[in-house]
Write a structure and sequence with these properties.
Two copies of one chain form a homodimer. With 249 residues, chain A is α+β, with helices and mostly antiparallel strands. The first copy, chain A, contains five helices and eleven strands, in the order E-H-E-E-H-E-E-E-H-E-E-E-H-H-E-E.
Chain lengths: 249, 249
């Protein structure tokens, strides 16, 4: 028996997120089915990040155990032949038997993309969130700075979450504009349910001038979801990479 | 009766190109249907560029004549409410009765996007062409320089074309790399059938090292389609803008 790790990129547009669920097709389900068919044994992957419906990934991570004699590094080629074009295995390899994709994480990077223009651009609509009113990215950056560091992010966690400890560390947040596209990039040791999208929604409110940047500090201190901004749409979000003990996937 | 001009952006992924045809849905057809419904009169648009199946646009141009009392500038809003999300009217306005979107063109700009990476990225697949082997963008730029100016582009025109005069002027071609994405941008007074995609395919061959950059000069001189490279895939191509007498759409 060996444990194999996959680095998975996907276009989340057509999927009901990562995790198996009864109402629609998910990334996890497609991987399980494809691996089971390919390896001729029942495979169940464990994912690092259970991305929401419509969210994309450049480097999510999954592991599974198998009796296969195919070398770990070769599996990605066989899988990519069989997977739909909106799911790509970037890397596959054998890992230690005790490697767990959630417990061993050292940091994750997410990117939130906003199209800030007078009209929506059809070729951007699947991978960004459209905002018509001008956003001031300097104000957004100023607001974002209050979130860097170790904080209780309860205000930025969806109300339905069952997590008890809502303290997380954000190592860095950058806000950059290239023409009509604003990119928010966040790196942290972990993110609560919907945390990145609620942060994006709150920064958008700051950028619109609806709240002053310093207000973000107050929102953090309130530890109450109702004070933060709305959850920004899924299509703007991409899980870019997951790092394990200085190794990037 | 007034003549109204539309600047149209679209994601060409799901369409069989611009021009009406029996085998599938086209941009022209959707515009005609939507305008006819909205204005309650039979509308037939005339397009500036009959983009191929799968090709995208940021700024194609169409005109039509109508008896409507809706001001030209307001039409875009009413249309965008009714159009599918992959077609957006960026601008609408009344123009002179003799304005013709093909005859009055002063220049067009196309962009060809290549993803040059070790694995395809799912979120790039609809708007770029994937090339696994490393491309040398400096060689591509060197090759592109031979195409700038007034030339007979017969070698870069699909064999089926009925055009008699195959002379066109390319004002500029740039080849730029940003990380794993290479962008070829061409501006000219007009382009022959499949010309941009055949140029892109030929530059890709140069970038791969399959032919030396100077060979492009020879290909031009041969005036024979069989000497140029293959036609690069549609999904990488976007019609960026059309300019009319110093005015950009």
């Amino acid at each position: 028996m060996k444990r194999i790790m996959l680095v998975v990129a996907y276009d989340g547009t057509k999927y009901c997120g990562w995790q198996m669920q009864p109402n629609g097709i998910t990334i996890e389900e497609v991987l399980n089915r494809t691996l089971t068919e390919l390896l001729q044994e029942q495979i169940m992957v464990t994912g690092a990040s259970r991305t929401d419906s419509g969210v994309h990934a450049l480097g999510n991570v999954a592991v599974f155990d198998s009796e296969t004699r195919i070398p770990g590094e070769k599996l990605s080629y066989a899988l990519n032949q069989r997977l739909p074009k909106d799911i790509v295995i970037r890397e596959s390899k054998e890992v230690e038997a005790d490697f767990h994709p959630r417990r061993c994480v050292s940091q994750k990077t997410y990117c939130y993309r906003i199209l800030n223009s007078k009209f929506p651009i059809p070729t951007e609509r699947l991978y960004s969130s459209f905002i018509y009113y001008p956003l001031d990215e300097k104000r957004m950056e100023e607001a974002a700075a209050y979130l860097i560091g170790e904080h209780d992010f309860k205000s930025f966690c969806s109300a339905g979450s069952q997590v008890i400890d809502t303290t997380r560390t954000i190592y860095d947040i950058s806000v950059e504009r290239t023409g009509e596209v604003i990119t928010i990039r966040l790196t942290g040791n972990g993110f609560l349910y919907n945390m990145v999208r609620i942060i994006a929604g709150t920064l958008i409110k700051t950028g619109l001038g609806a709240i002053p940047p310093v207000k973000v500090k107050e929102i953090l201190e309130k530890k109450d979801r109702s004070h933060a901004g709305p959850k920004a749409p899924a299509e703007g979000l991409t899980l870019e990479k997951i790092e394990y003990c200085n190794k990037i996937y």
